[in-house]
Write a structure and sequence with these properties.
Distance between the termini: 38 Å
Helix content: 25-40%
Structural class: alpha/beta
Strand content: 15-25%
Radius of gyration: 23 Å
C-alpha cells in the first residue's frame, strides 16, 4: 500500500517544518517554492562578500526551536546550527541622545531603571515581568499549541478562565503604563509590538510576552544568518524523504468534483497530485489567486493587515563602532509615528526604525574591518486610495535621509553615508512581488483581538477537504517561532492526533453559563456595538 502523500506550497518556516513533521510520520512529501531559494522572508541578501538577513534577525522563544528539532529526532547542535547570544539584547536610542541597553542581566538593568524611575523603580520592572511572564506561560499553554477550528473553541475552560489574565482588551501601552512612570521606559517596553506589525497603543496587552521572552530568555542570532535554521530543518526533512522543487510556481489548487483538494497545477501546466495540500504561501493571496473566487476570499483583503517596511541593506567600507548588533531608534512623537503608519498608511515625518549589524556578532557577515548593516523602517502597507497616494520612490529617499541623519545625530557617528559602498532596498511593492504578500504587509493579517484565535483564518479550510494552511495569516500568527507552532498544530490535525470535536464535551455547559459574562466584558471594553457579521469566522456565517 502506497504511503499517504502531501504537497506543501511554499518553503517558508511553516512549510519546511510541516513537511519535515509529515515526512517523519510516513508521508511522501513534496515542497514546491516559486523562488529559487528557501526560507521565504528568512532568506538572505548578498553583496559579494557581505551577507544580510532579508527578514527576521532576532531569534526569540528559543524553546520553540529546540522543541521543533527535538520532535524531529535531532537538535540544533547536531544539525550544525550555532546560536549566538546577543548581550546586551539591543540598544535603544532616544531623540535627546540618551540610550538604554536592554539585557537579561538584572544587575545591568537596575541602574538604568533607577536612573529613570528613581529608587524602587526595580519593583516596577519585576511587576511587569510577572505579568508578561504570565502572558507568555498562558499563551504557550492555551493558545499557541492549540487549534481553534470554530468559535466554540474559545470556550475551552483553560482559555476562558485565563482570558482576563491575558489582558486582551487593554493595549500593550496601557498595561505598561501601570508599571513605569518614565515615558522612555514605557516606549522601551512597548515598541516590540512591531515584531507583529502592530501599533502598541492598539495591540492587545497579551503581547507583552515578547518583552518577557527577550528579558528572560535573551535574544539569539544564528551564525550564518536566520536561514541556517530553516536549511537545517530542510535537511532533516530531506533525510525523511522530502523532495524540494525550487523555482516552481503554483497557479491553482486542483479539486475533485466533491470539493476535495487533490493537488496543485504549476505555471508550466504540470499537475502534481497528492492526498493532502498544505499552503504556506500568503493566505490572503492563496484564497484570492489559487482558489475559486468567493465572498470570504474578498473579505480577507479588507481585514486589517500588519504594516510593511522600507528596508535598506548597506555594505560599509569600515566598521561603524557606534552601533551594536541590534539598535532601535525611537521617534520623539511616538504615538503620532504609529498613527501615521497604521491610520494613514504612510512614512512618519520622524520615523522609528531598527538597525541590525550582523557583522558585530558574526564575522562571516562582512569582510574583516567592514560592516554589513540592515535598516528596517516600518511604513504603512499598500492602499488603493487616490486621496492618499504612496510615492514609494520619494518615500525611500525620505526614509534614507531620516535614518542617516538620526544615526549620526544620536550616536555621534560621522561620515556614514560616504562609507556606504552598495545599497539594496525592499519596499512594500517589492515585498508584494517577491513573496506574494497581500498589500505588501510583511507580517500578514493584523493580530488584533478579532483577528486571532477563532476569528483568524483557520488552519483547516472550512469547506475544501484535505486543504490546510500554515504561516503568518492563519492561527496562531506571525513570527518564525509562531510559524513553527503553526506547523506543529497543522501536522497534528492532519495526522489526526488532535481532537476534532472543537472545544470538548464541556463546551455547551460552559457556553450557557459564561456567555452573559463574555458579552458583558466585551460591552464594558467598547465592543458591544460591533458589526459581528464582519468578524465572525466563515463557518459561523454558513
Amino acid at each position: 500500500m502506497a504511503p499517504p502523500s502531501a504537497i506543501v506550497v511554499g518553503a517558508g518556516a511553516g512549510g519546511i517544518a510541516t513537511a519535515a513533521r509529515l515526512a517523519k510520520a510516513g508521508y511522501k512529501v513534496t515542497v514546491v517554492e516559486k523562488n529559487e531559494f528557501l526560507g521565504g522572508r528568512c532568506s538572505l541578501v548578498h553583496h559579494e562578500d557581505y551577507r544580510f538577513d532579508q527578514g527576521p534577525s532576532l531569534l526569540l522563544m528559543p524553546e520553540v526551536f529546540h522543541q521543533t528539532f527535538h520532535e524531529l529526532g535531532t537538535t540544533p547542535e547536531k544539525e550544525n546550527v550555532r546560536l549566538l547570544t546577543c548581550e546586551p539584547n539591543y540598544r535603544i536610542w532616544f531623540s535627546d541622545n540618551d540610550h538604554l541597553e536592554m539585557s537579561t542581566d538584572i544587575s545591568k538593568m537596575k541602574p538604568q531603571i533607577e536612573r529613570l524611575e528613581g529608587r524602587g523603580g526595580l519593583e516596577g520592572l519585576f511587576g511587569f515581568l510577572r505579568e508578561s511572564g504570565q502572558h507568555y506561560d498562558l499563551s504557550m499553554e492555551h493558545v499557541l499549541c492549540k487549534d481553534f477550528p470554530n468559535i466554540w473553541a474559545m470556550l475551552r475552560p483553560g482559555l476562558l478562565f485565563s482570558l482576563l489574565s491575558l489582558h486582551p482588551f487593554e493595549s500593550m501601552y496601557g498595561r505598561v503604563k501601570r508599571y513605569f512612570k518614565s515615558d522612555k521606559l514605557r516606549r522601551a517596553f512597548t515598541f516590540a509590538s512591531m515584531y507583529l506589525g502592530m501599533n502598541p497603543f492598539e495591540a492587545p496587552g497579551t503581547y507583552s510576552l515578547l518583552q518577557y521572552t527577550e528579558l528572560a530568555h535573551g535574544i539569539l542570532y544564528p551564525e550564518g544568518g536566520f536561514v541556517k535554521v530553516l536549511e537545517a530543518l530542510a535537511r532533516v526533512g530531506g533525510r525523511f524523504g522530502v523532495t524540494y522543487r525550487m523555482g516552481t510556481a503554483v497557479t491553482s489548487i486542483i479539486q475533485s468534483p466533491d470539493g476535495t483538494a487533490r493537488g496543485v497545477r504549476l505555471s508550466s501546466g504540470e499537475e502534481l497530485i497528492a492526498d493532502t495540500v498544505i499552503i504556506n504561501a500568503d493566505l490572503v493571496y492563496a484564497f484570492n489567486n489559487l482558489l475559486p473566487s468567493t465572498n470570504y476570499a474578498q473579505s480577507l483583503t479588507k481585514r486589517p493587515a500588519s504594516c510593511s517596511s522600507i528596508s535598506f541593506f548597506w555594505s560599509f567600507d569600515r566598521v561603524i563602532k557606534e552601533l551594536s548588533v541590534h539598535n532601535v531608534f525611537l521617534a520623539e512623537e511616538y504615538k503620532e509615528s504609529f498613527d501615521s503608519i497604521f491610520h494613514h498608511h504612510q512614512l512618519p515625518t520622524e520615523p522609528s526604525f531598527y538597525v541590525n549589524v550582523p557583522s558585530r556578532i558574526d564575522p562571516t557577515a562582512a569582510p574583516n574591518g567592514k560592516d554589513a548593516v540592515v535598516v528596517l523602517v516600518p511604513v504603512g502597507h499598500i492602499v488603493d486610495d487616490p486621496s492618499n497616494p504612496q510615492d514609494w520612490d520619494a518615500l525611500v529617499n525620505r526614509a534614507r535621509e531620516a535614518v542617516l541623519q538620526t544615526i549620526e545625530s544620536r550616536t555621534g557617528a560621522r561620515g556614514i553615508r560616504e562609507s556606504i559602498t552598495r545599497e539594496s532596498v525592499e519596499t512594500p511593492t517589492s515585498w508584494k512581488m517577491k513573496f506574494n504578500l497581500d498589500r505588501g504587509a510583511i507580517l500578514g493579517l493584523s493580530h488584533s483581538f478579532f483577528n486571532v484565535l477563532s476569528f483568524r483564518p483557520k488552519i483547516k479550510h472550512p469547506t475544501i477537504a484535505d486543504l490546510y494552511f500554515v504561516g503568518a495569516s492563519t492561527h496562531p500568527g506571525a513570527g518564525v517561532p509562531v510559524a513553527l507552532m503553526s506547523a506543529k498544530v497543522a501536522s497534528e490535525i492532519i495526522l489526526g492526533s488532535s481532537s476534532k470535536k472543537g472545544a470538548g464535551r464541556y463546551t455547551w455547559i460552559v457556553w450557557w453559563f459564561v456567555l452573559p459574562l463574555v458579552l458583558a466584558i466585551l460591552s464594558f471594553f467598547g465592543y458591544g456595538s460591533l458589526d459581528w457579521t464582519r468578524i465572525l469566522p466563515l463557518e459561523a456565517k454558513i
